[in-house]
Design brief:
Layout (H helix, E strand, L loop, with lengths): L4 H13 L4 E2 L24 H4 L9 E9 L15 E10 L4 H15 L8 E5 L9 H10 L6 E4 L1 H4 E2 L8 E11 L18 E14 L5 E14 H8 L12 H11 L7 H21 L11 H19 L6 H13 L5 H5 L1 H43 L8 E2 L1 H11 L3 H10 L3 E2 L1 H22 L8 H21 L5 E6 L4 E6 L6 H16 L4 E7 H6 L3 E2 L8 E7 L3 E4 L13 E11 L2 E9 L1
Parallel strand pairs: 1-2, 4-5, 10-11, 15-17
Antiparallel strand pairs: 2-3, 3-9, 4-7, 6-7, 7-8, 8-9, 12-13, 13-19, 14-16, 16-17, 18-19
Helix pairs in contact: 3-4, 8-9, 8-10, 9-12, 10-12, 12-13, 13-15, 16-17
């Protein structure tokens, strides 16, 4: 049966709504902190409180199609079946109907709606153990529906049982998994669902929560039984259209076609291009969903934002493999927003401009450092090649060193913004590995030095990386520009600087106008373009004040202070790290001007290549 993604989506929801279910829609992909995970990783995860007994405000019969994000196997994305973002088709009974209705409805959806041949449908049920009896009830219901007894398999706890590990008093129970053959050709007379040839595909799963988990590995029957159903949207769509490659479905086809067009390379005939297109298509789709989510995030160096940054930077790297601009990610994103998910996720359409802006910013930010970082990575490899060649000449028994040092990997991270995972992936492609333990040690040493430095100069810096140091230098230029535009009433009230952005609080009693913001940017960028040397002088604090130096934090300095000057543009007392010249900083952009507190304004700004 050929079916589009929109047809399958609508068919699922209509089927269960006709049977009294309320479509509760999809919730945020971003974990809310109550589930212990960063992202929702399963369709039933947001329903957990209600499966555990809390009444749902929309009733006892629910359905939806829930987006999920899985990040444990990002490196596997690039093959035909792995996706970072995916959707689960679900329906639930919270103490309402049970096995009789659910087996019939799953069977009817597969046969009447999707056209599966009931003679080929296979199912697995729980075989039972010393604690819980065999699930003969489900097996009989399946047989009564017309599934051949030879196609009903009894399997153990690891395959057909669901429970929350490490808990007591929680619902649990057997499940019924549905399978269907990709084709009729058996690899052997005994080819069945146990066979590793891949002929049979799992297409869905019905969990029957009919027990309560007790101490000592025992179980007791539940008074209110639940049903939890999960069918993989991408997997089922792939199967229904006769594909073994999930990227052939209409969820990706137009994106792949676009990447073929702009790259001039073939998805079907060029294996390396095929892998690159899959990675770009998958990671951009996930980025669109995460940025456009109701609780949307942006790329950063921590938490969920770090995962997003990692995905985007991997996609950007593979743009280079296709010889296309990283800005093409915006066009790929537009296809997802305008054509593929415009009906299912209307919020993406509303946030399109914002999503594209974030993609462009990250691409611009990473493109320059990527080129520089790859050069540095190649130097690491060249060094190992030369070392191995030299040592092999000296010692015939020498074992080649194919490990990139942890300090080298950390330098790629700290100076060039390379996540460890990216260095590992690049190394693996060349037949090398990375000393992760030494990387962790270098990272820890860097953090300890940063904390020690911060304890000394307390300049509001998150660390002393190159990026943070440049932004700190830009903060001096910003204050000098503000005093020129707004007057000498401007005085720093606080700052916070990370590798991503600077935040600067200053005394001023009204919002800045657009013209004032523009002029401030222009002044800072002119100082950067003038490539002013950053000069440090140590002197008694009274002498420093006589020179006109500004003290950022009042009188919280010792008798001997450091004065940093940038030409005639800026002169301040400071104890933090600085760039050698303003020309290192890049392009200064104010991203936000807002109130911080009464009489205090706040500016957030970035440095872009």
């Amino acid at each position: 049966m050929k079916i589009t993604s929109k047809q399958l989506r609508n068919a699922w929801l209509k089927f269960y709504e006709e049977r009294g279910h309320v479509n509760i829609g999809a919730v945020s992909l971003i974990g809310d902190g109550t589930t212990g995970v960063m992202f929702n990783v399963a369709g039933m995860q947001p329903l957990m409180p209600y499966l555990l007994g809390e009444p749902h405000p929309k009733g006892k019969r629910l359905c939806n199609i829930q987006g999920c994000v899985r990040t444990v196997d990002i490196e596997e994305v690039g093959d035909p079946t792995h996706f970072t973002f995916f959707e689960m088709m679900g329906n639930w009974s919270l103490g309402d109907y049970f096995k009789k209705e659910k087996t019939r409805w799953s069977f009817e959806f597969l046969t009447d709606v999707l056209g599966f041949d009931k003679k080929k449908i296979c199912a697995t049920v729980f075989e039972g153990n010393e604690s819980v009896p065999r699930d003969e009830e489900t097996a009989k219901l399946l047989s009564d529906l017309g599934i051949a007894k030879k196609n009903i398999y009894y399997m153990g706890k690891s395959d057909n049982w669901w429970e929350l590990e490490g808990t007591v008093g929680t619902p649990c129970g057997p499940d019924n998994e549905w399978f269907y053959p990709l084709h009729d050709k058996k690899c052997s007379p005994n080819c069945d669902i146990h066979c590793s040839c891949g002929r049979y595909v799992e297409i869905g799963n019905d969990v029957y929560m009919q027990y309560k988990k007790l101490d000592g590995g025992k179980y007791a029957p539940l008074e209110n039984k639940n049903v939890d159903t999960g069918f993989g949207f991408e997997r089922l769509l792939t199967f229904l259209n006769g594909f073994t490659d999930g990227y052939k479905t209409d969820l990706f086809a137009s994106v792949i076609a676009y990447l073929e067009k702009v790259s001039g390379k073939s998805y079907d005939k060029d294996a390396e291009a095929c892998r690159a297109m899959r990675i770009i298509a998958d990671h951009t789709r996930t980025a669109v969903m995460l940025i456009g989510d109701p609780n949307g995030i942006v790329p950063s160096n921590t938490g969920a934002g770090y995962i997003l940054r990692r995905l985007l930077r991997r996609a950007i790297r593979y743009c280079r493999n296709l010889d296309i601009s990283s800005q093409e990610l915006q066009n790929v994103a537009s296809i997802y927003i305008d054509e593929i998910y415009n009906e299912a996720y209307p919020l993406l359409v509303q946030r399109k401009a914002y999503i594209l802006e974030q993609l462009s910013k990250e691409a611009t930010k990473f493109e320059t450092t990527l080129a520089q970082g790859i050069k540095e990575f190649e130097k690491c490899i060249d060094g190992l090649v030369r070392k191995n060649a030299f040592m092999s000449q000296k010692d015939a028994n020498y074992v080649a060193d194919n490990v990139i040092g942890g300090k080298q990997a950390f330098r790629l991270y700290d100076t060039f913004g390379f996540p460890l995972e990216l260095t590992k992936e690049l190394a693996k492609e060349r037949g090398y590995s990375v000393d992760e333990k030494a990387f962790d040690e270098a990272f820890k040493e860097h953090q300890e030095k940063s904390k020690a430095n911060l304890g000394t100069f307390k300049s509001g810096l998150a660390d002393t990386s190159v990026a943070t140091t440049r932004l700190h230098t830009a903060t001096h230029l910003l204050q000098a520009a503000l005093r020129q535009i707004l007057g000498n009433e401007v005085a720093q009230k606080g700052s916070n600087i990370t590798p991503e952005r600077l935040r600067f609080d200053f005394s001023f009693n009204r919002p800045m106008t657009e013209e004032e913001i523009k002029k401030t940017e222009e002044l800072v960028n002119k100082a950067i373009a003038d490539n002013l040397p950053v000069v440090c002088q140590e002197m008694p604090i009274e002498d420093a004040r006589k020179t006109g130096a500004i003290g950022l934090f009042g009188d919280k300095y010792g008798e001997i202070v450091k004065v940093y000057s940038m030409g005639d543009f800026s002169k301040e007392l400071c104890a933090g790290p600085h760039a050698k010249s303003t020309g290192e900083l890049g392009h200064f952009v104010i991203t936000k001007e807002q109130s911080s507190s009464a009489g205090v304004r706040r500016i957030k700004a970035e440095l872009r290549p």
